[in-house]
Write a structure and sequence with these properties.
two-stranded antiparallel sheet, 6 helices, 2 strands, DNA-binding transcription factor activity, single chain, 2 domains, mainly alpha, Arc Repressor Mutant, subunit A
Length: about 150
């Protein structure tokens, strides 16, 4: 490339595809799929008050989320319990087994990421990860870029 930078969208698209391709065999070794990992990760910090809210958080149509939840629940990686305030809703929560699988996947993914980033000098690697995390945090449900300007 001569003096021009890559477009962010194109760069993120290439990196995303490469990361998905690198993570897929790792997740397969743990007997989970990418969407399984996405759902487990979304539940890591807190239970989802409803399946609909979980679907919105992971950007997956709720009708397509149900088979994922069924599969994860059958493996006891998450639980769905009736909401005490509205029995039509199901509260979705990570189980201890789910936390263990998520942690194990994450260890292997972090090792792959370290190998991928090994050619980047440590200071630049730290900055890259910090900026990427900052940008990813901006996409959290219920958060907007204006939150940082206040």
């Amino acid at each position: 490339m001569t003096g021009q930078r890559h477009d962010l969208g194109a760069s993120f698209a290439r990196l995303t595809r490469m990361m998905i391709d690198a993570e897929t065999p790792i997740l397969r070794a743990h007997e989970i799929e990418m969407w399984d990992y996405t759902v487990l990760s979304a539940l890591e910090s807190a239970a989802a008050p409803t399946q609909a809210e979980l679907a919105a958080a992971v950007h997956r149509d709720k009708t397509r989320l149900i088979p994922i939840l069924d599969r994860l629940e059958s493996r006891r990686l998450l639980s769905r319990t009736p909401d005490p305030t509205d029995r039509r809703n199901r509260v979705v929560a990570l189980t201890d087994e789910g936390r263990a699988v998520l942690a194990s996947c994450r260890v292997d993914i972090r090792a792959m990421e370290a190998e991928f980033l090994a050619s980047v000098p440590p200071a630049k690697r730290r900055t890259f990860i910090e900026v990427l995390n900052q940008l990813a945090d901006l996409t959290a449900p219920g958060r907007s870029q204006s939150d940082d300007r206040e």
